[in-house]
Amino acid sequence: MGEALLEQVINGLMMGSLYVLVALGMVLIYGVMHVVNFAHGVLFTLGGYVGVFCYQHLAPSYPLALLLSIASLAVLGLAIERLVFHPLDGNLRNQVIASLGLILFLENLIIAVWGATALQWKVASTEHLVSIGSLQFSAHHLGIIVITLALVAVLGVFLKYSRFGTAIRATSQSREAAIVVGIPVRRVQRSSFAIGCMLAGLGGGLVGPLFLVFPQMGDVPLVKGLAGILLGGMGSVPGAVVGGMLLGVTESVSTLFLPTDYRDSIAFMVMVLILLFRPQGLFGQRIRGED
Amino acid sequence: MKRSPMLFSCALLGLAALAWPMREVQAQSPSSARLQIGVLTSLTGSMAAPGVFQMNGFRLAVEEVNASGGLTIAGRSYSLELKVYDTRANPSEGASAMQRLATVDKVPVVLGELSSGVAAAIAPIAQDYSLPLVLTVPTGPNLTEQNNPFLFRVNAHNNQLNQALADFVSRQGWAPISFIAWNNDAGRGGVTGMRQLLPAATKDGYVGYFNVGELDFSSHVSNVRNSRAQAVMLFMDEEPGSLAIRQIRDAGLKTQIVGTLAMGSDRFLKRLDAQRLDGMVQYNAFPPNADVPRIRNFSQRYKAKYGEEAHGFAAQSYDGLMVAVAAMRAAGTVNNGKAIRDALARIRHQGVIGDIQFDAKGQAHPSVYVTQWCADGTRRILYPDSVKAGCGAG
User: pLDDT of B106-153, one tens digit each?
Assistant: First the structure.
């Protein structure tokens, strides 16, 4: 039982890492722009496609393909922010509709360019196996957890101690106050959107070789990432990390006791239960006047 | 020099007017009459990949019929051509295309479809218009249980496939057996049907279902290990199948893997590697390398045309078109759907996949094989005993 539990915790941490990458990106964008970008899942997908394209056609180096994927998503993020979200600034309803439209546009663009059939992305790290006791995992599987945790630490330090990180936090607390004290809010918005998209690109690039690259690969991470955000507390960076990981581990461990097809239900039931007793989420703060 | 757009348009219209009667004459000429055969398949969407194999089979059959002088009925020779509509595995698009084939294109027979859901949607339309429908790939058992006299199926359905696999597995003494399957009718139906066919001793294994789009099988792998299953059966298609096998083997499980017909081709081998597949068994409708003359000949012709190993869907579809042609020939008509239906009901055709003869429900009973992957990436035939053969024959 102990071995099975360990295996499921590691599996849960891996899936949770993917949810964290999506959740963190969405929280950063939500923080400074107050918009939930539902197209984040398809940006995650695009990360996988750009990565596999770079790997197969430009340079057969996985780290390089991953970096190119992240860089491409940053550029795309800047373009989307400038062309779609910024013109709709202040109109939340239209921004949400625009993000839904982006899903249709980008998903069909992917199908038009790469086709509807799933692509395989074979890299060395998925072939290399690592043993933990009698359990065995691919190095890539464990690598996703390590990279995500390292990135969370770097992002935490960046947001807390760097000048620009402070500007991001200030803008997310009060945009007006940030303008008053001279923070370049537009630059903060653009950069946050780009960082959010980079995280999506990293997620897609990490999961692509482990599974497959296909047009709907971002759907599940989007839904679970959103659930992780709600669980951790809307707008809270530590909340997104804990929420995403908790969701991944909960759904994975639940399969030891219940049929596997209840996995999603269990994860969402835990989320509902926590929100019943703590509506602001685990790390969110209750704001006066809000129910 | 400035050219008048009007003059250019008139010239184009004139050319079109000259070309129009020529096409009409061509169509009416007894020596080159064309006959369109309706085809419904997935050219795009989630089932586009198997759709290629289905179309390859139809195209090869049409090419061979036309090369041998076409279809001659009452002294008139017809050159066959395919009227293809893409259903995208979507029942409503399939129904709409079927309606069009019946009312606008007025084809004598419709072939195809990949998805059982689409086949269920188009079959009643075939009956409404007395238009014979020959299925070549869908495996849903219920399709031929609807008392639809215009529906025929060349390929084996899930129960037939399961029966052969259960027969083979029962002899191996693997117990308990675990299952990982789609969380849909096909997956759940497959598991329920198979568990009914297997001995009681096999039934203590783990049964897990996954949703379409789910790619992480780690929880299932853990449960399979905990159930101490001697074998795990995978009811899924190529893509999740390759992921499940990879995750089972990467987790260090030595359990015997039992797969479906989607997992016994060179195409599947390319998704994984011989090391991970070694020892895995799967049922198969068409072992392309079997030393059986009809299979060997077809495989050679297929490889010569498409440059790759023949696929079961292509063989079944090739036979489906040949059966339809034989029925039109026997009925002596390309217009009377009822007469063609009656001919199909009576037909006995020596096909690539075996003897094709439909029962009262319109279902054929082709051979089902069990093949096993060898360490060198080839396959051997393990079942039925009459065609048992070593590595390289499957």
Answer: 999 999 999 889 999 999 999 999 999 999 999 888 999 999 999 999
Determine the residue of chain B that is closest to A118 in CA distance.
B239
CA B181 to mean position of chain CA atoms: 20
What ipTM score was computed for the predicted complex, to two decimals? 0.77
| B159-284+369-387 matches B30-155+294-356 in CATH topology | yes
Give the nearest chain A residue to B223 (CA atoms). A256
* A18 is a domain residue: yes
Cβ-defined contact of A135 to B251 (cutoff 8 Å): yes
Helices (H) and strands (E) in chain B, counts: 13, 15
- CA gap A167, A170 in Å, rounded: 5
The shortest CB-CB distance from A129 to any of B210, B222, B250 is to B250
User: What Rg, from alpha-carbon coordinates, does chain A have?
Assistant: 19
- Residues 165 through 194 of chain A touching chain B, CB cutoff 8 Å: none
pTM of the predicted protein model: 0.76
CB proximity under 8 Å: B 252-281 to A: 252, 271
Q: Is residue A291 part of a domain?
A: no
**Tokens at A284, concatenated:** 């969110």
Angle between helices A40-53 and A92-114 (to 10 degrees): 30
A54, part of any domain: yes
Structure tokens at A144: 């996703």
Burial of B261 (0-12, 13-18, 19+ CB in 10 A): buried
Residue B29 contacts A where some CB pair is shorter than 8 Å: no
What is the architecture of the domain spanning B159-284+369-387? Answer: 3-Layer(aba) Sandwich (3.40)
Instruction: Please give, rounded to a whole number of angstroms, the shortest distance from the CA of A129 to a CA of chain B.
Output: 7
